[in-house]
Design goal:
- It is a single chain.
- Helix content is about 40%, strand content about 10%.
- The protein has 2 domains: about 20-85, no CATH class; about 90-160, no CATH class.
- By secondary structure, the chain is of the alpha+beta class.
- It has a 3-stranded antiparallel β-sheet with strand order 1-2-5, with no helix packed on it. The protein has a two-stranded antiparallel sheet with strand order 3-4.
- The protein is built from 4 helices and 7 strands.
Length: about 160
């Protein structure tokens, strides 16, 4: 029987089948239809898998251009949602390539610490310090309570008195 204009199918006079197709929270529900006996046949729900529902809420996404089209635990790569690797899987992949995962993590942590120190230095750097001095001062503040900063400013303070 033909659609009744609101997305459901009218099996008989005054009757209509269940909801129109919809996609909510990563679950697609196809439109209901009419059975051969005139009764409604509800569409079976289907998970969108690694994809989210489309913006209109009528279907699952089937490709992606960014991570927003992918569900939690997945990311967009070359137009497809793929599962993120666990730390253990990354470690196995690195080890298979002859790379020590602990060394990679240590380097990453050291770079992250330097980046944070550089951000702090930029935010608090005085104009009379070079960028390298500002980074050193920020690291010193973090690690030694500012001893290097006092040493770096002592000559400037004595010159200012002259």
């Amino acid at each position: 029987m033909p659609p009744d204009g609101v997305g459901s199918v009218t099996p008989g006079i005054g009757a209509s089948c269940g909801p129109a197709e919809a996609c909510v929270a990563g679950v697609y529900t196809p439109p209901s239809g009419c059975g051969g006996d005139g009764g409604c046949v509800l569409g079976a729900t289907v998970s969108c898998g690694k994809y989210t529902c489309d913006a209109a809420g009528h279907a699952c996404n089937s490709s992606c251009s960014d991570d927003s089209a992918c569900t939690t635990g997945n990311y967009c790569a070359a137009g497809a949602c793929v599962a993120k690797l666990t730390d253990e899987e990354v470690d196995r992949d690195l080890a298979a390539k002859g790379v020590d995962p602990r060394a990679i993590r240590a380097k990453g942590e050291a770079l992250a610490a330097k980046l944070e120190a550089a951000k702090a230095a930029k935010a608090t750097a005085r104009h009379d310090f070079s960028p390298a001095q500002a980074v050193q001062i920020a690291l010193d503040r973090r690690d030694n309570g500012g001893e290097a900063e006092r040493a770096a400013t002592a000559p400037a303070a004595s010159q200012a008195r002259q």
